[in-house]
Amino acid sequence: MTHNRLMALAGALLFLSAAPALAAPCGNNSAGFEQWKRQFAQEAKANGIGQRGINALMSTGYAAGTIRADRGQKSFKLSLDQFMKKRGAATIASQGRGKKRSNAALFNAIERQYGVPAGPLIAIWGMETAFGRYMGNQHTLSAVATLAYDCRRPEFFTGHLYAALQLIDRGALNPAQRGAMHGEVGQTQFLPKSILMYAVDGDGNGRVDLNSTADALASTANFLRGHGWQPGAGYQPGQPNFAAIQGWNAAGVYQQTIAIVGRQIDGG
Known about the structure:
The protein is built from 14 helices and two strands; from the N terminus they run H-H-H-H-H-H-H-H-E-H-H-E-H-H-H-H. About 60% of the residues lie in helices and about 0% in strands. The two termini are about 30 Å apart.
């Protein structure tokens, strides 16, 4: 794991040193996407992205489905009770307790290494992909490139696009990778920059694969630790580790649901 973490840190440092000025013009529809790609590719090459990454970028298409999904995120405006019901929180908690029992050795090992108990990890796992059953079928790089081009949040997704291109350059991300609508991949839905910074080899096979349960859960624990998780401290609102959960998702109802479902799974 030390090697993988060093790779992650090296990638993060490369990203920081390669942070570009946002010169390529954004757009609100597909009309300017191809021109934007050509200009962004020039900027990316000047900022250290290799030919493999550039070729992958030039092969992307405008992801209209991603834009529809990005504009249609209405569930985060629901009340907490409505959101929990819509997302099946009771089912996640019930099934999650079974996952904790059947994967006890894995969760114990993760807690020993990262200080994060099973409950919030399982809550995230269930909330994100129904425990790996629904990981998405959107072309990942097209989704991230489209969101970097779109005028709504170009700065945020430009960072993720650079990270994705770096991962492709080093062979850590397949240019054909498919995942969720906003470019998240794996069983707990990591965005590319988070892969660079936090993805680890949880099953000890010498490689990182976020479609692997062990890798995804260990990487999620590493993410939470990287956002200030304190071993043994509480993670409900107002407690020390709730801030780490806030780092996972910006929506308040999502954060609270992770905390509540996690507590139900941990039995606290």
